[in-house]
Structure prediction request, 1162 residues.
Amino acid sequence: MFNTSSILTTHSYSPALLKLKPSHFLITLHKHNKSVQFHKPKSLLFLSSTQFLFPRALKPLNEEEYDVDEYDEEDDEEEEDSIAADEYYDDEEDVTEQSEDDDVAASAATDADVSSSRYEEFNKLQKVQKLRDEVRTFGEEIIDVDELSSVYNFRIDKFQQMAIEAFLRGSSVVVSAPTSSGKTLIAEAAAVATVARRKRLFYTTPLKALSNQKFREFRETFGDENVGLLTGDSVINREAQVLVMTTEILRNMLYQSVGMVASDGGLFHVNVIVLDEVHYLSDISRGTVWEEIIIYCPKQVQLICLSATAANADELAGWIGQIHGKTELVTSSKRPVPLTWHFSTKNSLLPLLNEKGKQMNRKLSLDYQQQQLSGSGYERSRRRNLRRKENDMSYRDNGMSKNDLNAIRRSQVPQILDTLWHLNSRDMLPAIYFIFNRRGCDAAVQYLEDCNLLDECEMREIELALKKFSIDHPDAVRESAVKGLLRGAAAHHAGCLPLWKSFIEELFQRGLVKVIFATETLAAGINMPARTAVISCLSRRGASERIQLSPNELLQMAGRAGRRGIDERGHVVLVQTPYENAEDCCKLIFSGVEPLVSQFTASYGMVLNLLSGTRVTRRLNESGDMTAIKAGRTLDEARKLVEKSFGNYVSSNVMVAAKEEIARIEKEIEILTVEISDEAIDRKSRKVLSEKSYNEIANLQEELKAEKRVRTQLRRNMEFKKLSALNPLLSNFEDGHLPFLCLQYKDSEGADHLIPTVYLGKVNSLGSKLKDMVLGNDIFALNAVKLQSSDGDLENCVEFEPSYYVALGSDNSWYLFTEKWINAVYKTGFPNVALARGDALPRETMKFLLEKEEIQWSKLAESETGGLWYKEGSLETWSWSLNVPVINSLSEDDDLLHESPEYHNAIQLYKQQRTRVSRLKKKISRTQGFKEYKKILDSTKFTEEKIKRLKSRSMRLTNRIEQIEPSGWKEFMQISNVLHEVRALDINTSLIFPLGETAAAIRGENELWLAIVLRNKILLDLKPAQLSAVCASLVSEGVKVRAWKNNCYIYEATTVVLNVVEFFEEQRNSLMELQEKHGVEISCGLDSQFSGMVEAWASGLTWRELVMDCALDEGDLARLLRRTIDILAQIPKLPDVDPVLKINAKAAAGVMDRPPISELAG
Prediction:
């Protein structure tokens, strides 16, 4: 092993090499002497080309749109391109060598590990079989925690032992422990005991991918004949002793068992149910499924609930104990592999926390970073700004504005390659690099295509694995990802085919993929730990603003770090971004885990199945069997079930205490408010001041109040004059040149922002896409406001109607704004003249670019006269934004607003009045008794701050009550009323009509809507491919066009299909109106945009033909096809559906279910 300095002493290289960053030095050295290679641990980031030092720049890529599908294992991420900061130089790291013999040894060790793992699995299977034989011989009494622990070749943890002991005592168990701490071992041990007793266990997971993984793992432990799988796609060995399934499948099965009385553990002869990832109970869209399972589960069945760390695990265990039976809670906060937190910046990878792990590392503080930047012109510029804005309240206590903070953040943003270089040099690979959008993951892999993270042996292994995969699944190979894969990098997101993702997971577990760029859904239970987890950003793009990760989401991703039995420590790396710094990271880490919150909501399927429940009565007959009689459950009986929700339990314990606390706070606020009233201040002033001093200050204070009222009126008048001048002024530019504007707003922290922009036009004059969005969306609604045009006389108020305008900022962002946010309109701008003959005019070009982009605006600020919105521009608008000048280069003399005499006079009057107020304040401060009076004012301010904190506490408690206060029964009745009105259910007699029978048997987002469509006779005339296309229009919600480069084509549906969808549109509108009438908010899916793709596939088009230049990601298209197959497969099993439709649906599903789509099921 040797370092760079020893190399330079033995070779004649230029001294300039000593100044290079290690990665630059390696590349330069590689060019001089290709025989010298460095490996740490296998090989460093060598470039295959010597043409350049680093690949092109790339920002952190971290946006995502979160969209959960009931049966899909991944979310639908939103795309957003980003670019990282500049490269950096770091002379602190030494580079060491690892010999080729070490590589061979490491490869052999990897093979040995794989062989050892296979041997351990085989050994475990033998031990389970041996235990079964012993139980058969000596009885169930021999099963204890020691016997179950002997199945494993290691000592189990204390919390695992406690949970197993609780299970063996016959209790249900709730286990709350960190991610990757070994909770699954508890469920596996319970399965071993259940199998040995010749009984039955159901294992449920929230994701199909996780179900498939557990299915494979359990088959290795218990043998193929003892394990089954039941998902929406697959039914394998459903009578097995250990049956793995998704939670929705179990919930649908339990619907039929509610109220059943049977022997041998209930309707399904099941003794134990394992609910994995039970913290999904807090999931907004799916959480109700976990609550329903626990509520409906027969009491004689033992429950094992496995949850990530939750703040209120005791409440969960208490709830289950109340409604289900004896339940024991086992918690653990200890991770088997401890985590170390790091923070990656442009120049370094530092510990995020101090040595005690209780506070942030001092070197990551803003003050420290300021000192590092003090040598640059940045600090001098900041001081000038401080002098200019000395009294600006937007500055923080440390003297930095929001702009200063953003400048420091941007200067420290690393590239992806910078962070990976540190990980590789410190032996922190393999890593999962979380990026919150799929395009960002793909771009990151392409960014590393010229780097190599593998040695030759590993590369050959991947080539062999890829060759085998290509033979087995030729259509599932992701060609665009192969080059990166051969370099040791891969992407993992919902845009990939599930088969390809499984292949990537397998290679990663074998140690052949060194870094996976993944969306956050990879953290959701999939057993794929790494040595390091990198989290690229603490926030992601939402519908209108950036949404910060919750502490639970952060810890879930961080939990992927650290491989038990392999790593002594796991590493979590948080990355500096333009939005967050180390301080924000520490706040999130130390904020603590969140509590589980009930998301119990009613659905059409729930109402219909509960009210049409089955009761069983015994009848004397020859066989002595039990006979089931169909009978409707009453509303009172259904209400008892619904009111067993987790939310009701929590509210009964917490709500009373919270309301008492709110009442106490309100009483204290009332007392404190009296203390800071004018009368109280007056009494205190009279007590401490002499009569002369009191009268002097009192008179001046009255005068100050009067002057402030005048100042307020003049400010309003100035605002009115500005708005009045702007409307005609901007109208003059609709066809002329494009002037520069200055927009101004204050953020939530009070920091003032000035944005130079180039004006494009009024929204009404722009493209229909933006116009329709603004006019058709309530969040952009504008109302006329009354403004005082004179000295506060209400009779002189003038009604003003604001309008929306669009401009492109110098930061390459589009801005949507009203007159309120315009600070200045300059004479200068872009001339609306074509740059060359035949080119479009600049205004038309910019309109085209605006219309071309995906419209998703984020709100910056809000006012009564309309909001200020923005969205990031594209690479094509970047060159235009570069020509927008900075504010300092624009002269105030060029501001056209000042040419309005009324506005100019209003400004002068306001400034004069502001001066009067300021002078009066100084005069008060010079009075004889001001020192004592100021103490009273300071005490008042302190009390006001206390009131503010109390109100904030009261608001948090109120929000907590709203979160936990259940509304299940109200929603249940609202849905019942809709069903009653469409004659699917008679809520008075609980009689289910044919429409209700069909809806009750369907799995879907809106069961009633699906039943209405599938029972319509118009479907009988459709061919199988056309039927597939219509069904696809019902389940395409969440699928989006993602045009990229040349991929911009979608097959159009045939006229027959479009006509049928149009026919159903009217029925859909009727149902939506009925739902709105009764306060029901359940979407009714109907979108023919992608029906042509499904119709083409159902007509026999090959997969390669279908995806060629397709504007859909392969994963999205496969998911849409599987959803369509799922609904087609349900039709033959539905009651009261025409036999012709059943035949056509079965034929359509058979045609569609072919490779690679058929391969997704397993």
User: Anything to note?
Assistant: The longest strand covers residues 752-762.
